[in-house]
Amino acid sequence: MNDSDPTTEIWKPILGYEGLYEVSNLGKVRSLNWKNKKGVVHELTYKLTRNYFSVGLTKQGKQKWHKVHRLVATAFIDNPENKPQVNHKDCNKLNNCVSNLEWCTASENMRHAENNGLMEAAHAAIVKACRKKGWPGVKASVESARKTGWSHMKDISKKGAAAAKKARSKPVAAFNINGELEHTFESATEAEKNGFSSQAISACCLGKRKTHKGFIWCFIETLGIPTMTPAEKEKLLMQWSKKTEKKSSAA
User: Fold this and answer.
1) In this structure, are residues 81 and 103 in contact, taking their beta carbons and an 8 Å threshold?
2) Any idea of the CA torsion for 116, 120, 123, 126, to the nearest 10 degrees?
3) Per the count of CB atoms within 10 A, which of 28, 56, 123, 229 is most buried?
4) 198: exposed, middle or buried (C-beta count within 10 Å: 0-12, 13-18, 19+)?
5) φ, ψ for residue 177 (rounded to 5)?
6) Is residue 125 within 8 Å of 140, Cβ to Cβ?
7) Which segment of 93-102, 151-160, 193-202, 218-227 scores lowest on mean pLDDT?
8) For residue 230, how many other CB atoms are within 10 A of its CB?
9) What residues contact residue 5 under an 8 Å CB cut-off, 6+ apart?
10) In this structure, are residues 101 and 85 in contact, taking their beta carbons and an 8 Å threshold?
11) What are the angstrom distances between the C-alpha of 203 and each of 63, 72, 113, 200, 251?
């Protein structure tokens, strides 16, 4: 039987929730312990989180939210190279049919986004988010965002170790491909302590590289984000620390 056949729905157990939940090749999730009066197994309702469908799965009294596309890919698509991300081939993040999904690396995901014009939308979303937060220094158009946010840093870049060190000491911000702010660090060197490359981050901020580990990087001063107080910096670092702990425990 062909798992990618859109005319036939196939159900498989969800890894870690065997006997409790199942996911289908058409992107649906159902609870095996929840049936209506006619004995029909209940399909879970989705929650839209950052443009992706998610479902809450409960085990031993604890609920955890999972992105539907990852549940489908894990159940139906082999991943021999252990690639970390799941790409939507048609660029529709709500189409979670197995035929529309593929495992990929962060760079492959970004390349797909660039080839299909999603980076344009991401840059536009960043501009919109910055304007909404009241951060000055960012123009309304995508082209202006490139000039003021990424490319114009080439104009002030200098050769030599001194310039590189200076670049790595500036506060930086990381956005995902949806244009949403994910991380901020006091410097690229500080980000390196959290698993990123300070050289790659600096290259992104200077316009020499587009992304690093799936994120779009910018100098915070370029976006006009007000200088953070020590308390704000500590809060941001604590948020990052909690995210890291959650990822470690999940692994």
Assistant:
1) yes
2) -80
3) 123
4) buried
5) -70, -10
6) no
7) 151-160
8) 7
9) 25
10) no
11) 40, 35, 20, 5, 30
Other beta carbons less than 10 A from residue 226's beta carbon: 11
Helix H or strand E segment including 72: helix 68-76
Tallying the residues shown for the chain, one arrives at 251
pLDDT digits (tens, 9 = 90+) for 115-154: 777 666 666 666 565 555 554 443 333 344 344 443 332 3
Task: Of 28, 27, 9, 31, give the one whose Cα is nearest residue 18.
Answer: 31
DSSP 8-state symbol, 170 = S
Which amino acid does the sequence have at 120?
E
Q: Which of 195, 186, 196 shows the shortest CA–CA distance to 220?
A: 186
Do 57 and 64 touch, CB atoms closer than 8 A? Answer: yes
Q: Set out the domains of the chain in order of their start, with CATH numbers.
A: 11-104 (3.90.75.20), 119-250 (no CATH)
Q: How far is CA 17 from CA 47, 58, 62, 86, 162, in A?
A: 19, 8, 12, 20, 53
Provide, rounded to the nearest whole percent, the portion of the chain with pLDDT above 70. Answer: 62
